[in-house]
Amino acid sequence: MDPVRLAEQTVDRAQLQALIARALETPAYASEWEGVDLDDWESLPLLTKERLVEASSGADPFGGRLAVDPAELAYVFVAAGPLYMPFTAADLTAMAKSYAHAFTNAGLTDADLVDQTTMYNWVIAATVITEGLRMVGCGVVPGGVGRTELHLDTIRALGVTGIVAFPTFLEHLLRQADAAGIELPLRKAVLMGELSNPNLERHFEDAYGLVAREFYGTADVGVVASECAAGQGMHLRSDLVIEFIDPATAVAALPEPGHPMELVVSDLSRRAMPIVRLRTGDLVDSVFRDACRCGDDQPRIARIVGRSTEITKIKGMFLVPSTITRALASASLDCAFQVIIQRRPGGQDDPRLALASPKPANALAIEEAIERAARMKIPLEWDAVIAENSPLVLDLRDEAVGSR
Questions:
Q1: Domain spans in the chain, listed from the N-terminal domain onward
Q2: Model-level pTM?
Q3: Which of 29, 157, 349, 354 is such that its CA lies 20 to 30 A from the CA of 366?
Q4: How does pLDDT run across 180-217, given as a tens digit for each residue?
């Protein structure tokens, strides 16, 4: 083995070379890497979500990054943008294994019946989470998003012991159960997908008797880090290439308290669409290298502390401001806008779209276009006053998920 030292990892050079070779078979990477020293990993251009979305809007829905014959595809998921995400059967199985590992870390076993509460249509999350749960041996209740009362009735009727959920939805669900005097059999929670209160897990344990553990991942590579029973941070996956960069300069740097750095990920195994040096936009400010009580010697990261770009997550879904721009243009509206996100007292995200325009005759069509583009309903506010150079996304969430 010829090792390459990258951030907190030692990576087999042959694995990196194989990934580079796969990527070079695609027109997009071949063009972007022209003239680059391929023997110097850190000289490879960083990839962004914006570039992926922009490229997929052309004639090729995969943006020139499809690396297999279309006949090999088992799934194509559609993320906000739109971004078309191809997977072979082996790709999905490999990603599902990362979720299975995270669920085992979190304490789920084949004795658990689990309510899976993320969205099943179009996006990858629910499909790959369900596959991961089945690899662990869990029984799965495919609840999906919304319909709080049905979730509560089903959890109680079936004796559901585990749940996979966004923190805000779980908090909402538990508050509704409290208000209705419903005693739930839930004992374990696996949390994901949102910025969270640092005391979140203790809150769920103290207030509701739930053992809660968190994992962090992206739709492109699956789970990146997951928390074990020790609850001392999320262990980084050993089969991904994980780097940290200064979000302003893109120079490699390790995170420290008060100096958060951005995670960059590469997938060593995905074939349908190679993912090489993808900027996640997610920031961490701590890496733990001391021994964990669970015996796993992989470095650990603390919670995600913020986003480096204006792409943000609402109700666990990415919102890309450029999709709002395109939706407005499709409805022949050209005006300044700002997405404003607050958090309701019950813990749910509450977005709205402020528009510096009088309400036009086709306001309903514009609202529908925004909903299609964002994959969620966002109320519109007309005649808004938006200062010059205002951010496209104003995030006012105080992260107080655990407050009561």
A1: 87-309, 317-395
A2: 0.79
A3: 349
A4: 999 999 999 999 876 656 677 888 999 899 999 999 99
